[in-house]
Structures are given as structure tokens and as C-alpha cells.
Sequence to fold (831 residues):
Amino acid sequence: MEENTNKPGLFEKGGKLEFLHSTVDAFDTFLRVPSTVTARGSHVRDAVDLKRVMILVVIALIPAALFGMWNVGYQHYLAIGETAGFWATFWYGFLKVLPLYIISYGVGLFIEFAGAQIKGEEVNEGYLVSGFLIPLIMPVDVPLWMLAIAVAFAVIFGKEVFGGTGMNFLNPALLARAFLFFAYPSKMSGSDVWVSLGKGSAVDGFSGATPLGHLSEGIDGVTAAGFDWWNLFAGTVPGSVGETSVIAILIGALILVWTGVASWKIMVSSVLGALCVGWIGTAAGVTTVPCWMQLIMGGFAFGTVFMATDPVTSAQTETGKWIYGFLVGALCITVRLFNPGYAEGMMLAILLMNTFAPLIDYCVVNGAISRRAKKMKTA
Amino acid sequence: MSNNIRLKGGLDIPISGEAARKTVASIKPDVVAIQPDDFKGLVPRLLVREGDKVLAGSPVLADKQRPDILVTSPVSGTVQQVVRGDKRKLLAVLVKADDQQESVDFGTAKVSSLSEEDVRKKLLSSGLWIALVQRPFGVIADPAAKPKAIFVSAFDTAPLAANPEYTLGDRMEDIQAGVDALGKLTPGGVHVCLNEANYSGTPFHRIEHAVLHTFSGKHPAGNVGVQISHISPIGKGDIVWTVSLTLLAAIGRLFVSGKLSLVRKVAVTGPVAKDPAYVETVPGMAIRQLGAFYDNSAKDIRFVSGNPLSGRNVGEDGFLGFFDNQVTLLHEGTERELFGWIKPFRFNQFSSSMTYFSWLLPKKKYSMDTNTHGGPRAFVVSDVYGKVLPMDIFPIYLVKACLAGDIEKMEKYGIYEVLPEDLALCEFVDPSKNDIQAIIQNGIDRMIKEMA
Fold:
């Protein structure tokens, strides 16, 4: 929609700084609702837009982010054997996590804006969510330059080359993590990366391993390492920044399901899939960890609620969502049970199912169409 | 009714400005427009010149390929102007109406004694043939075709739609004659769809010689396309016809009185309409004749001929469309709200999604304007569209097939069954703000071109 001025404005078409149009437009529409009126079709429109959808995901992530910051501090003081007050603990974690956010948003948004500028499109708000997710699925001590490379890789090759948000087939945030995992495995696994020691040194007997690190030792190993259902559920354990607290994640899940932004079908079926394989695992004697415990360990809950439900990269059909979610959960536990070297199966399970989601949809849609065609023939 | 068809999903849009059930004026037509664009598939050939005298029912336009399809004047008067646009495209023929209205006499006859050929000829010569819309694709019915059946929706669920019991309840005789006449044209009979909630309250359940169906549910339950897909879905090679209840009454009138009378009650509605109510007028009426209903001194009103979801923006100098019995007046929403999308509460904005708090106020009517409330984006959210389309199709797959121009996929995903109006609600709820109706129309135009 052209503005009603005779001369083109500085940033409008024909203006001097036209090349910055997308950037200015992004900030402008960030502050104020655009004055665009409907040109064709329905004359009135629903008040919801993608900005609203995306900001709700960010809001749903805030409990996990806040708890994650506190937990970073908590794990730090635990490891160096000091005690600190609540605010000191939180502050330590906040200062640790803040740079991750600055890098994530700084690098990601720069590329998004540049991409929109080149294509002459409006800046898509999808990165608001990806940029918020990425620090939460990283080990807190990840070097910032690695994070920057991973973000750049994820945004360029996960999204922009396909045409931006809505066109990508892999979850960009997970892609950033997968990139780091395969490029710099020493910084993304093992037991040294999950707890920020800062300048302090660890006390005797400190391990730093995540609960999943003990998974191959069975339930006794997990318990012996000091993990019980309560601290796994509350999240006072080492792990990626935002993934540890199931309570915080459930608050987010409630917001997402109530507002309808994320699919409850995917969440439920993912849990079912995990329970199913986890139960088979215990019944067949592969592991002694009870299946329900898999749900509160590692990144399963976070992945199920925030990553598997990404509307762009998950299945699009309602039946497809059930299948997709079930396979995400099932694959995650399968990886955990049979790959002791890298026990966090959620990332790989979701990325793998991302690539299969279009196939699932294809089968569901074609199945429905041929069923209907048969019905019409007999009718 | 035992075989009621209950439709899940859908959405009744709570927009303010419903017309009160009273007819405040009988608008005497002044200059009336005959607009070829009202009719899909018509390639117009002009039959009159400026200054010619016409009667109500005199031919004004004919179709170039099928010259027996005529568009006739709704009033008697003098052809004042032939309006042409770019590349001499014919936009409208303006007829200055006489004080005394005279009509061409097409002769009365008992419908039961007429043959199929008589009915067809009478409809073609009177210019009422174009009231028949052919599906797939929503084009003018082909006189040489034999439709599977003819469908009429006797209720309208569109936002602020004219109430059919009020507008046509007293014209049962005409409607019955119309049903009888159209019944001759199809072996499948005339199917009339009623609202289950109002079944006993509506006079239309007394229609005879038709198959009655009842539906319950929210909009688009009243869309004839949605109804057809539940009664007898349109497959490849099928042809069905539809006709609006308003024009069905006009068809009946033609057989009863022998004259073309398109006079109808029109609902003047919308949030910025002053004392919204009904007027009695003819199609092609100048919107300016509704001056008593609005104050456009700020030039900020949109004039829509039809309903706010799928009507046409005709402007203050425009005219009422041939098929429309509703005019919607909307405020052009060019104001810019600060931090609109991030505010937790926006009580004056309606959203069907739970991301806002409209669900707290289920009874509230909203003074909606034409703001898009966001910029266009790629499709992201996947489950909102199917919830407002009670048809057995995958709307976004169809839309994407239309965007890609893939004929085979369009066919597979159900292009034969839909018209843009059926997906209007998908467009309304779309958080990505795509023009879904326009995309579907482009897809349909491509199908017509490929199949020609």
C-alpha cells in the first residue's frame, strides 16, 4: 500500500534510502499496526497475525528461560561448593545466558533483515521464536563464536535458502544445535560442558554429567548419581539451559495449548510414543529405567512442547500430527536406549521426523482423497 | 427432520450493524447499471446504443459465444451511457429509468403445462437464465447442459446477511412457481436447503416438488457449495446448478406474471451504517441512492455490494450487484494502533483465535473495519483453516495447488467443489493474511482456460 504523500518518503520506493525499506518497515510495524487495508477478498479480517502467534510462543518460553538462568547459577555454586542467595544465583545465570541471547538475536536477525532486504519482502517474525529457543537448547558454556556460526548456518541453510519462515522443512533452532553437535562434538557432549564453573574450580566428587549420561547404567546408575524423580521434574539438574525443568515447560505447554498455537495432538502422541518404546525397553530388559522417567529426563519435554510442535516443520494434517508426534517420541527413546554414546535422542528424532513430515502428510492426504473418491463412486 | 446434516466448525463473525427488520424506503430507481462483470463466463456483446429506449426485460447484452444468453434491463428507460474501461472493456450500461415503469410481456402460463424447452426459452429470453450459476467454477449455466440437480440455499449464514424469511417470506407463490419451473430442467430435481434451527419457523419448509434438506451449524453452513458437498459432492464431469432464493423468486414471478421483476428487499448493513434496515430496490441501483444511511464526509467508508466476507468493493459511485441483496458499509481502517499485536487485551478487536480474549465476550458485536491487522506472510499455522471449512477437503493444499497452477493437484484437492466464497472464512482467520479467495479464483480461471 502506498502512502498518500506526493513525494516518496526517504525509505519508500523511489526514496533515497529505499534499500533499507524492509528494515524500516519491520521496526515500524513492530511498533504500530500497519495501515494496510484489505484489497481483495474478505473485507474484514481477524485481529490475529503471525506477530501475535510468535510472541505467544516467546511468552510460553519465558518460564523455562527464567528457570534456566537460575539453574545455571545453582549448578555453578553447587559445583564449586559455595552457597549463594536466590538473586545472586539468578544473577550469575543471567549474566551467563545473556550473551547467548545477544549473539543468537544479533546474528540471526541481521541475516533475516538482510535476507528480507535482498528479496524486498517484509521481515518475517519467525526468528523471534527461533532466536529465543536457540540459547535454551545450548550448553551454557558454549563458546560464543561457535554459537554465532551455528546460528548463521541455521538461518541461512535452514531457512533463507528455502525462502524464509514458512518454507523451511527443518526446525532452524534444532539445526543450530545439530550443527554444533556434529561440527564440535567435544563442546556439545560428555560431562564437562553442562555446568558453568566460571573462575571457580570444582569440588571433589563433582561429575557435571547430565542424567542422560547415566542412562546406560540403568536406574541404579541414575539414582546413584543423585537424580530422583523430583529433581528431574523440578529441573535442578545439569543440562541445556532451558530443558531441565519439566514444571516450567508444562507452564509453557499450557499457554501453547490453550491459545491453540501449538498442537496438543503432537504433544500427546509424542508422550505416548515415548512411553510405548520406553515400556518395551524395560519389558525386553534393554534398560532398567522406567518408561515414565524418560519423559522427565533430558530434552524430551522441551522438544515435545516447543520443537516438535513447530507448525512449519511438523505434519500439517490432523491425522498426520498423531503419526508424526508418536514417531518423534518413539524415535527419541529408541536412540536413548541403543546409542549410549549420545543419549540425547530428541534432537535427532525431531530433525528426522521433520524430513518425514511431508511424506506423512502426503500419505494422509492421498488416503483421504482416494477414500472419498471411492465413496463418491458408490454413492 | 431426521436426516439433518450437522456441520462441525465454522464461524459466525460477530460484526455490528445488522439490519432491523423493517423496510424504510422503496427506492425509485434513477440511473441503473447493468454490469457484465457480475456474470462469470459472460463475454458481452452490446445490443443497445446510447439513447435507445428499453423496457424492463429488453435485452441489453448477449453472450458472444452463446447468443441466446441475454442480459436484460431491470427497468424501463433510456440508455444513458455505455461505460468502458481500459482496452475498451465494457464495464456498465447505464439506463436512466422512466417515471412510469413498463415491462416486456413474456406471457403467463401454468408451469405444469410447460415443457422443458418452454421453460428454457422463457428464462433465456427474459434474461433470467443468468441467475443460474453452474458448478464447478461458478459460471453462467450452459443452456445445452443437463445438470445433475439444482440446489437452492434457503438460509444465509454470512455476516449481516439479509434475513430470507423477512425478504421473501411473503413470496411463497413465486418461489413455488420457480421451483416447479426449474424442476423441468434437471432429472435430479430441485434441492432446497433449510436451517434446522428455524425449520418450523420458516415458510420455506412448505415448498413442494423439491427435495428438502436441513443443516445446522455456523457459517458457512448456509453456503450452497458447502451444502452440495454434503448432499451430492461434485466430481469430475459432474454439473450442478445453483440459484439464489432471491432470484428463484424472480424466476417464479416471471412465470406467474409474465413480466421480469427483479425488485427485492436489500439489507443495508455494517458498522458505519446509520440505522441499518431494509430498502426495496432493483439490482444496479446506484449506491448513492442510499445516502440516508451514511455520512461519508471524511471519505473513509468502504461500500460493499454483498456481505463483508465475499462482497465486492464498489465505491460510493458504484452499483448494487445483480446477485446481491445486501450492502455493507465499513470503515476503512487506516488508523495505526500502537503496539497492537503485543497488547494483552484488545477488547475492540475480534479474533476467533484464543490468542486474544474475544472468547471472554461471546455476545459482543464488534465494529470491524477493513484493516488487515498484519502483513502478508507465508502459510505457517496449519490447523485454523480446516476448522472454519466444514467440507471434506484440505483447504491449504488446494490453495497451494492453485498458487502453483498445478491442474492435476487442484483437481485432486477439490477445485470442482468450491467457489471463492466457500473459503472466505479461511481468508478471514488466516494469520498470514493471504488473499485466499483471489488465489482460488485464479485457480478456477486457470482450470476454465485449460479445459476450454
